[in-house]
Design a protein that fits this description.
- This protein is 23% helix and 25% strand.
- It is an alpha+beta fold and 413 residues long.
- It has 2 domains: 63-172, 2-Layer Sandwich (Uridine Diphospho-n-acetylenolpyruvylglucosamine Reductase, domain 3), CATH 3.30.465; 174-374, Alpha-Beta Plaits (2-Layer Sandwich), CATH 3.30.70.
- Strands 11, 12, 13, 14, 15, 16, 17, 18 and 19 form a 9-stranded antiparallel sheet that branches. A 5-stranded antiparallel sheet has the order 4-5-9-7-8.
- The chain is globular and about 60 Å long.
- The two termini are 33 Å apart.
- Bound molecules: flavin-adenine dinucleotide (FAD).
- Flavin-adenine dinucleotide is lined by residues 4, 35-42, 46-47, 56, 76, 98-100, 103-104, 106-108, 110-111, 113-114, 156-157, 161-162, 274, 281, 365, 367.
């Protein structure tokens, strides 16, 4: 089995597709090494194991609304696309989506996956309760009343197999999408927070070269104030793809045409595969206040980065309180890099990029390419030591561990 990008062949000796949670519990209890695989959209080895891989797609796939409570209960392996469609059919929504809807709910949330919006927390922000099968095989349900809830929701797969999640829902809403072109870097850096806060969700697409940012995607709610002039940027008159040479056919509708949230918040339509997987990704998250300085630091490396880049995307995310969330107690800016499929060249440039971003308290995206030994995780995450202790308490033999997790959790920094 390979991951979506094809840059990684998993090393599992066995693959199981349990058909009941009971069977899954038994498999976990009896395994020496075991991990869940979601939709395999991670770019690094966070999901890898040399033991047993569990696929959750043969479990009963539930999407159960509790309209009175304002939540939906979902099986962990369900995709955001399927969930979004089921919610929309019943007149409901969740607060935000990532750039593509194909990813699994549990896998996305475990790695801190996010969309954009200064007031929008990551996808984990919607979690009300989580069903987790621990290393012992025990099934527990954790809610916000349990301290371990805040450790387990963004748990990078280290605390158990997530079989179900209860997510907060809200009435469905409409959004409209406008792409602005040619925003000058000077204006973007001088007014970053104002532009990023100008609508529900804002994304900047650039390769860091030149004097202008080629595209700014603005996803506005019907209730947002009409967009004012955006520092000289020009609204596109045709639909755009973030990559200049690609057809906009597989992108969600733009040109201010209002539509349901699930067809506007992702950049890519659910019915299309966003690309053939021939790309790599990295992403770095840091306090929003530092955005202009961090962007300047990256621009200083533009000459080295641009030849390796398809495109970069800059987004914002609200703070949360999940111990290992890259947004833990910090409203953040996310600097995302979609690389060409040149893994060794990318791995060579990453430490230089990570070093340039280190002064800003940068945390890496858990599901994308980064260099673990570039980070002092204990300093970056105030509850890191508590997380480590919890992992040791619940999984003393390291059943859910792998080389990447060991490098993150058990390295003396
Ligand atoms: C084209 C593309 C676009 C992307 N866009 C975004 C974006 O907009 N924003 C963003 O933040 N990220 C984005 N990502 C990254 C992606 O969201 C994360 O890598 C995410 O983890 C993918 O979820 P998955 O189900 O594929 O997880 P996998 O890669 O299958 O697994 C990731 C981790 O989750 C664990 N896991 C999976 N299922 C479970 C479970 N049931 N219980 C416990 N642990 C589990 C795995 O063991 C592993 O540790 C994108 C990736 C791609 C390929």
């Amino acid at each position: 089995m390979k991951n979506w990008a094809g840059n990684l062949e998993y090393s599992s000796a066995e693959v199981h597709r349990p058909t009941s949670v009971g069977a899954l519990q038994e498999l976990v209890a009896n395994a020496a090494k075991v991990k869940a695989l979601g939709s395999r959209h991670s770019f690094n080895t966070v999901a890898d194991t040399d033991g047993t891989h569990l696929l959750l797609d043969a479990l009963p796939q539930e999407i159960v609304l509790d309209k009175e409570k304002g939540t939906v209960k979902v099986s962990g392996g369900i995709s955001y696309g399927a969930l979004g469609r089921a919610l929309e059919d019943q007149g409901y929504a969740i607060h935000n989506l990532a750039s593509l809807p194909h990813i699994s709910v549990a896998g996305a949330i475990q790695t801190g996956t996010h969309g954009s919006g200064v007031n929008n927390p990551s996808l984990a922000g919607a979690v009300v309760s989580i069903d987790l099968v621990r290393a012992s095989g025990e099934l527990v349900t954790l809610t916000a009343d349990d301290d371990e809830f805040r450790a387990s929701v963004v748990g990078i797969g280290a605390l158990g197999i997530v079989t179900g999640l209860e997510l907060a829902i809200q009435p469905t809403f409409q959004a409209r999408q406008r792409v602005l072109t040619g925003l000058s870097w000077n204006e973007a850096l001088a007014n970053f927070q104002e532009i990023a806060s100008s609508a529900y969700s804002v994304s900047f697409f650039t390769n860091f070269t030149g004097d202008t940012i080629p595209q700014v995607w603005i996803k506005a709610l019907e209730t947002d104030a009409p967009l004012a002039d955006m520092f000289g940027a020009i609204p596109a008159t045709v639909a755009m793809h973030p990559l200049p040479d690609m057809s906009a056919e597989n992108c969600t509708e733009q040109l201010d045409v209002a539509g349901p949230w699930l067809d506007r918040l992702p950049h890519f339509r659910h019915e299309f595969t966003p690309s053939n997987g021939e790309e790599l990704q990295s992403e770095f998250l840091l306090p929003l206040d530092h955005a202009p300085a961090a962007l300047r630091a990256v621009r200083n490396l533009a000459g080295k980065l641009a030849p390796l880049l398809f495109i970069s995307e800059i987004r914002t995310i609200a703070a949360d309180d999940f111990w290992l969330s890259p947004f833990y107690e910090q409203q953040s800016v996310a600097l995302h890099f979609t690389w060409k499929p040149l893994q060794s060249e990318v791995e060579e440039i990453l430490p230089e990029l990570e070093e340039a971003l280190r002064p800003f308290g940068t945390r890496p995206h858990w599901g994308k390419l980064f260099t673990p030994d570039q980070y002092d995780f204990a300093a970056l995450y105030p509850r890191f030591e508590d997380f480590r202790k919890l992992v040791l308490a619940h999984d003393p033999s390291g059943k859910f561990s792998n080389a990447l997790l060991n490098g993150i959790l058990h390295r003396d920094s």
